[in-house]
Amino acid sequence: MASASQPNAGSQGCWWWxxxxxxxxxxxxxxxxxxKANKLGRDEPRRIIHxxxxxxxxxxxxxxxxxxxxxxxxxxxxxxAVLTVLLVLEFTVGGTLGRGLNRTFATxxxxxxxxxxxxxxxxxxxxxxxxxxxxxxxxxxxAVTFLxxxxxxxxxxxxxxxxxxxxFSMVSVSGYRDEDALTIAYERLLxxxxxxVIALLVSILICPVWVGEDLxxxxxxxxxxxxxxxxxxxxxxxxxxxxxxxxxxxSFLQGYKSVLxxxxxxxxxxxxxxxxxGHGRFLFRHPWKQYLKVGTLARQCSYKIEILSGxxxxxxxxxxxxxxxxxxxxxxxxxxxxKALKELAATIRTMTxxxxxxxxxxxxxxxxxxxxxxxxTGLLEDxxxxxxxxxxxxxxxxxxxxxTCTERISDAxxxxxxxxxxxxxxxxxxxxxxx
Amino acid sequence: MASASQPNAGSQGCWWWxxxxxxxxxxxxxxxxxxKANKLGRDEPRRIIHxxxxxxxxxxxxxxxxxxxxxxxxxxxxxxAVLTVLLVLEFTVGGTLGRGLNRTFATxxxxxxxxxxxxxxxxxxxxxxxxxxxxxxxxxxxAVTFLxxxxxxxxxxxxxxxxxxxxFSMVSVSGYRDEDALTIAYERLLxxxxxxVIALLVSILICPVWVGEDLxxxxxxxxxxxxxxxxxxxxxxxxxxxxxxxxxxxSFLQGYKSVLxxxxxxxxxxxxxxxxxGHGRFLFRHPWKQYLKVGTLARQCSYKIEILSGxxxxxxxxxxxxxxxxxxxxxxxxxxxxKALKELAATIRTMTxxxxxxxxxxxxxxxxxxxxxxxxTGLLEDxxxxxxxxxxxxxxxxxxxxxTCTERISDAxxxxxxxxxxxxxxxxxxxxxxx
Lengths: 435, 435
Description:
The structure is a homodimer. By secondary structure, chain A is mainly α.
C-alpha cells in the first residue's frame, strides 16, 4: 500500500492517470480503498471466485427472460427466479443450502396456507371476504413473528419464517384481486425452485466453499494461535529474566486475541455446517457440536492467556532468585502445553489421530508436579518479601491453570476424533522443530 | 412450568382438554414449548407488542389491495409494499430505519442504473441487446457482491447492497420484455416508499423500541453484573476463611459470564443505534462508539473476574495466617471496586454525573496501596512454604489488576458523560446498602 500511493510506470500506470487530476484527498481515499480491496482479495481469493459465481448464476437465470421458449413458459414470474438466485446464493454451500431449503419449504407452506385462507374467505361473502383475509394475515404474521424470537428458530429457520409470512400475505392478499390464488402460489413455487436449483448447482459445482471445512480450519487455527502464544511466552519469559534489554518479537502476543471473541462466528458456522450434505471426509451428521465444545474450551484457555500476557507486561520486578527457581518449570510447562495445542490443531486439521500430544501433556503435567514439589519444599529466604515473589507466583498459578485447561482441550479433541472417526496412524505426526 | 405439567381446574382448564388425548410425549413437548413461549413473552413483553405491530402494519398495507381507489392507483405492484413492510419492520426503530433507508436508496440507485443499462442495450441492436444486458448484470452483481465483503459495508449497508442488485437485475432484465423499464422502476420505488413509511410510522408511533436505549441498558447491566460479582466475592472470600462450612449463595458467580461474550451484540446494537434520530435525552450523533469503548473495558475486566472466580473454587488450602493478612485488603478492594462499578452503571443508566464512584475508587486504590506496603514490609515466617501462599498471592494479584481496570472503566465512563452531556447533580446518587 505504501508503494501504491506513489505513481510508478509499472502495472499501475494504466489506471494512475485516471486519478491524476483529482484533488489530493480524493486521490488518497481512492488509493486507500483500492488497497483494502486488494487485501480482501489476496487474503481470501475465494471471495473473488464467489463474486464471479454470483454473476454467472444471475446470467444463467436471466436466460428465463432472454430465451423465448423459456419466457413463454415462465412469463413475468421469471423475475422470482432472479430474486431467488440473488437471495439464496451465499458464500458457503451450507449457507446456500440452508437458505434454499428454507425458501422452498416456506414458499410451499405459505402458498398452501394462503390458498386455504382464500377459500375460507370466499365462504364469507363479498363484504366478509376482505375482513376474514385481513384477520388471517394479521394472526399468522403476528404468530410467525413471535416464533422468530425463539433462539432455536432464529438460528436455523429465520429466513424460512420471513418467507412464510411473505408468501402467505402475497398469495392471500393479491389473490383477492387476481382470483386465481392457486396459480400465483404455483408459479411462485416453481420459479423459486428453479432459482434455488441454479444457485445450488453453481454453489456446489464451481469451487465449492464448505463451511464445515472452514469451521474445522478456524478451530484448528485458534488452537494453533494459543499454542504459538505459549511457545512464544516460554521463550520471552526466559529471555526477560536472562537479559531485560533484549527486545522480544511480540507478534505472538496479538494472535490469540481473536480467540477471545470467536464465539459468535463459531456458532454461526456450526449452524450453517449442519445444512451441508456429506462430502469428502465429512459424513452427514458430522459431530459439529463437538467442534463448538472444543472452541469453548479454547476460549476459556484464552482468558487465562490474556492474564498471562498481562503478566509479561507487568512492571513489578520479581526477586531474581525466586524467578530463577520457578522460571524453568514455567518455561517447560508453557512450551510443552504450546506443543500439545499445536499437535491438537494438527489432529483436527488433518483429521488424523495422533498420540504425540499425550507425550507433551505428560511432560507439562510432570513439570507442574515438579513445580508443586519445589513450592512445597523450597522455603523462602528470610530476606524475601511477599511483594518480590508476587509476579513469579502469579505466573506460576496461571500457567498451572493453563496446563489443566490444555488437558481438558485434549480430552475434547479425542472425543471429537472418536465421534468423527478420524484416521489412525501408527507413526506420530511430525512435531515442528523447536525454534 | 412444573405446575403447567399437571392439569388443574384453573385458567389452564380451557386448553388442557385439547391435549388430553395426545400421547404423553407429544403432550410434554407441547407443554414445554408453551412454557418457553410464556417465558419469552414475560421476559420481554415488548416482543408481544412487536408481533401485534407487524400484524397491524400488514393489515394497513393490505388496504392498498382491498380499497378500490388505492388498488386502481397501485395495481399489482402493491404487492411490493406488502413485502417491504414485512422485510423492513424490525424489532427496533434503528433496525427499521436502517433497513428502510437502505431499501429506498438502493431501489432508487438500482432502478436508475437499470434504466441506464436498458438504454445502453437498446443502442446495440436486437441481437446485441441481451448480450449487453447480460454483461451489465454480471459485472454489476459481481462488483456489488465484492463490496459486501468490506467489513464497513457489511455492518451498515449489507441489505442495501442486496436490494441494489435485486432492483438492477429486475429492472434491466424484465425491462427487456416489458419495454417500459422506467415504469417498473418508478412503480417499484413508489410502493417501496409507501411500505417503508407505513413500517416506520408503526415502528416509531406505537411503543417504539429504541435500540440506543437498549444498548445503554446493556452496558449498564454489564457493569452492574461485574459489580455484583465483586461484592459477592468480597463476602464469600471472607466467609470461606472464617468458617469453611458455611454454604455460600453462588448465584452471583454466574451473572458476569454473559459479559465475556457480549462483543457481537454490542457491536450490532451500536450499528443500529447510529441510524436512530435524536429522541428524548439522546441527541443525534450521540457518542455511541464510546459505549463500545466502555463495553470493551468491561469485557477485559470480566476476563480477570473469570480468573478470580476460578480461585474461589480452587482446592489448594492457603496457610491461614497468610490469608488473614492479605484477605482484609482484598475484601476491601473487591467491595469498593464493586461499589464503584455499580455507581458507574447507575451513572450510565440515569445519564447523571455522580462523584461518589471516585470515593469508592479512591478507597480501593488506598486498600491496594495498603496491601502493597503490607507485602513489602511483611516478611514471611520461616516455616511458610511457597505452595501455601500461592492461592492468596494469586488472588491478591488478580484483585489489584481489577482495581486498575475499574479505574480505567471509570475514566471511559467520565469521557462518555462529557461527550453525551450527562446531567450534573450536586447530591451524590444513593449507594445501595451493604447486605
